[in-house]
């Protein structure tokens, strides 16, 4: 397909690799965190790490919305389906995330919960229109890419006075997560890896633009290169990061200029601002409670807020003890460092959330990288 | 979850409120919403995510990025 295939050319990837190898100074080491799961997926799928010189290391960051969703939030969705009898609409990715008591949304569905996978908020609205006698809740997860569609759904429901529709809002903010990685008290517990730069989000940036990352570059002296999700985009971004490090620069550069501008999509931002406000705090899986890192529905649209409508309180639930997702999301450990990786925890039977979506570090490594771990 | 695709717009102005479009997804036709984006025309490429167009794809910028790769291929070849 156009604008995809041209960015997957293997020969060009090798040229880029050669260039990176030439530029990377042998006496120093470079660690770059790719924030998005889309980049993690591309790196594993196309074996990009193998193309890089040994002193250039990619660290997988927390940028997969499924991976950072804490157990307590999935418990709330299951509760709505099983105890409140609502029709729960969800993106397919959340279905297999392990929740409390050995449950997941999929297992809750087998127990009789009316849980329906939707592709878009447009589908969730239609289900609400078609079932006026039932309560319909959309389980809204995701970063800044999926937030505007949720905002539009709420505005549409408001306009149509669709009184049986509400949203369990779990939308989180990318810049807050990056700050948390760079300066959090948990660094003492988990340790931290020195990160020399970030590959910035692709599609998140189509919405918020590249401007929000300028703060990091200035405040933390870390270069950020916004990059697309195709393999050549990622390789080019690594090259640009190596250059910045060599030259002692810490700027925001945009490799994905074909879809991202400095200011992003203003119309989408306006809709989000109309419907949502900052949540004072939100628990992330693996990053603990991060202040002002998520969104909640404004008072004006409070009747569409499932937490208000069903008077729910969030209860934090600790992760499975064996699971190393917390350390993996911070880049401190790699999937193969987890004792139950690939044995007890597999994509068919995930224990932690990093094994659920194909953008999670564990699932990506399981699917594409694990044979390399075998010693010959 | 965050994966989104560049798709070609082949029809605009459809749907109940006139803000839907039909796109070509590698040969498959699909209805999407343009409610988050202004001035989309037939022939444009947009980034599609969970049923909504999030941004337009700028063909000139795409060419520029590709040109950067080929320039680099030449410079590497020249240097080796
Ligand atoms: S392998 Fe499974 S249990 Fe271990 S860190 Fe990854 S997701 Fe968690």
The ligands found in this model are: iron/sulfur cluster
Order of helices and strands of chain B: EEEEEH
How are the strands ordered across the major sheet of chain B? 3-2-1-4-5
State the end-to-end CA separation of chain A. Answer: 38 Å
Which range best describes the helical content of chain A: under 10%, 10-25%, 25-40%, 40-55%, 55-70% or over 70%? Answer: 25-40%
Q: Would you tell me the structural class of the helices and strands of chain A?
A: alpha/beta
Mean pLDDT of chain B: 86
Gross geometry of chain A:
globular
Shape of chain B: elongated
Q: Give the largest interface pair and sizes.
A: A-B, 60 and 38 residues
CATH C-level class of the largest domain in chain A is Alpha Beta
Please, what is the CATH homologous superfamily of the largest domain in chain A? HypD, alpha/beta domain 2
User: Number of helical runs of chain A?
Assistant: 16
Number of helices of chain B: 1
Q: Strand fraction band of chain B?
A: 35-45%
- Which percent range describes the beta-strand content of chain A? 15-25%
Which sequence of SSEs, written as H and E, runs from N to C of chain A? HEHHEHEHEHEHEHHEHHEHEHEEHHH
Counting helices, strands and paired strands, the structural category of chain B is: alpha+beta
CA distance, first residue to last residue of chain B: 41 Å
Q: Could you explain how this protein is built, in words?
A:
- The complex is a heterodimer of chains A (376) and B (80).
- With 376 residues, chain A is an alpha/beta fold.
- Chain A has two domains: 1-310, Rossmann fold (3-Layer(aba) Sandwich); 324-367, no CATH class.
- Helix content of chain A is 37%, strand content 18%.
- Chain A contains 16 helices and eleven strands.
- In chain A, the strands form three sheets. A five-stranded parallel beta sheet of chain A has the order 2-1-7-8-9, sandwiched between helices.
- In chain A, a hairpin with a 3-residue loop joins strand 10 (276-284) and strand 11 (288-297).
- In chain A, helix 2 runs parallel beside helix 16 and helix 6 packs parallel to helix 7 (147-160).
- Chain A is globular.
- The model of chain A has no long low-confidence stretch (mean pLDDT 91).
- Chain B is of the alpha+beta class.
- Chain B contains one helix and five strands.
- Chain B has a five-stranded antiparallel beta sheet, with no helix packed on it.
- In chain B, strand 4 and strand 5 form a beta hairpin.
- Chain B starts with a strand and ends with a helix.
- The chains are: A alpha/beta (376), B alpha+beta (80).
- Chains A and B meet through helix 1, helix 2, helix 6, helix 7 and helix 10 of A and strand 1, strand 4, strand 5 and helix 1 of B.
- Iron/sulfur cluster (SF4) is lined by residues 322-325, 328, 335, 338, 340-341, 345, 351-352, 354-355, 362 of chain A.
């Amino acid at each position: 397909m156009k604008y995809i295939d041209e960015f997957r050319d293997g020969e060009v990837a090798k040229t880029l690799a050669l260039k990176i190898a030439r530029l990377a100074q042998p006496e120093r080491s470079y660690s770059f965190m790719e924030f998005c799961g889309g980049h993690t997926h591309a790196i594993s799928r196309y074996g990009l790490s193998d193309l890089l010189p040994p002193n250039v290391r990619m660290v997988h960051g927390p940028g997969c919305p499924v991976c950072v969703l804490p157990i307590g939030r999935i418990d709330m969705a299951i509760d709505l389906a099983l105890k409140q009898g609502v029709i729960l609409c969800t993106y397919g990715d959340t279905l297999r995330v392990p929740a409390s008591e050995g449950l997941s949304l999929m297992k809750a569905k087998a127990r009789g919960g009316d849980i329906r996978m939707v592709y878009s908020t447009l589908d969730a609205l239609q289900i609400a229109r078609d079932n006026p006698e039932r309560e319909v809740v959309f389980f809204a997860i995701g970063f800044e890419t999926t937030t505007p569609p949720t905002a539009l759904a709420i505005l549409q429901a408001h306009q149509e006075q669709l009184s049986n529709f509400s949203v369990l809002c779990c939308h989180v903010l990318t810049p807050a997560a990056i700050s948390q990685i760079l300066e959090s008290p948990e660094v003492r517990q988990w340790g931290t890896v020195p990160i020399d730069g970030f590959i910035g989000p692709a599609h998140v940036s189509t919405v918020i633009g590249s401007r929000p990352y300028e703060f990091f570059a200035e405040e933390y002296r870390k270069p950020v290169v916004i990059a697309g999700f195709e393999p050549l985009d990622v390789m080019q971004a690594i090259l640009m990061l190596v250059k910045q490090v060599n030259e002692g620069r810490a700027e925001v550069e945009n490799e994905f200029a074909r879809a991202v501008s400095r200011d992003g999509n203003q119309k989408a931002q306006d809709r989000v601002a109309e419907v949502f406000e900052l949540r004072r705090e939100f628990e992330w899986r693996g990053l603990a409670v991060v202040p002002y890192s998520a969104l909640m529905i404004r008072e004006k649209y409070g009747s569409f807020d499932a937490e208000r409508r069903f008077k729910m309180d969030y209860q934090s639930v600790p992760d499975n003890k064996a699971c190393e997702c917390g350390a993996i999301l911070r880049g401190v450990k790699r999937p193969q460092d987890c004792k139950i990786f690939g044995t007890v925890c597999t994509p068919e039977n995930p224990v932690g959330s990093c094994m659920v979506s194909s953008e999670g570090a564990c699932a990506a490594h399981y699917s594409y990288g694990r044979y390399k771990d075998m010693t010959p | 979850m965050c994966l989104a695709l560049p798709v070609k717009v082949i029809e605009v102005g459809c749907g109940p409120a006139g803000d839907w479009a039909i796109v070509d997804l590698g040969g498959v036709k699909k209805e999407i919403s343009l409610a988050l984006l202004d001035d989309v025309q037939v022939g444009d490429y947009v980034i599609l995510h969970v049923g909504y167009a999030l941004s337009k794809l700028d063909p000139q910028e795409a060419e520029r990025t590709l040109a950067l790769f080929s320039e680099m291929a030449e410079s590497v070849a020249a240097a080796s």
